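Technical note accompanying the year-one report. For the benefit of new consortium partners, we illustrate the data format agreed upon in the data management plan: each record pairs a sequence with a structure-token string. No post-processing was applied to the example shown here.
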Amino acid sequence: MITDQTRVPRVIESVQALPKGSAVLFRDYELPCRLEAAKAVREVCLRRRLRFLVAGNGHLAAHLRADGIHMPESGVESARSWRRRRPEWFITVAAHSHKSLWRAARAGADAALLSPVFATVSHPDITPMESLKFASLTFQSPLPVYALGGINAKTASRLFGTKLCGIAAVSGLGLSSALPIGPKINYPPAFYST
């Protein structure tokens, strides 16, 4: 699950509905009360035993005792620095190409969020890679990959058979979600496609 209070304002309810094994990537960069919002999400994650990551701010992640961080593609070198400081953290990096997947791996990232896989409302001007290119990139990737961008019930099914570790979404599954890919996806009870 990737938080975005603008697109999915019911963040706490969404976190509470996530299946076991999920992770929450707290993004919401522009919130004036980012620290307070992050604390509220972290509390729910602790109670539900969900992994909690903070996007783009290692100091905030450390302050909140997060399980890790997510860095933008341009911040891949920051991932290297945080890997040295916090070897126990789960570190993800945004990636948009073969080259960026390798840069993330060399920086010590544990996984990459590869996007946009499909057409997405948040970035309508960016050409999506679609299933075949995504499959090729994940097959060649030196680290585990989560699919991001335009993920919904229909498009997620087009990713079966690719070498990925999961899917990530803000609003495409009705709830902000990161669900493991396997023979069957068990969506939260409040699942609906937007």
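Partners are asked to follow this layout when depositing records. Residues 175-194 have pLDDT under 50 and may be disordered.
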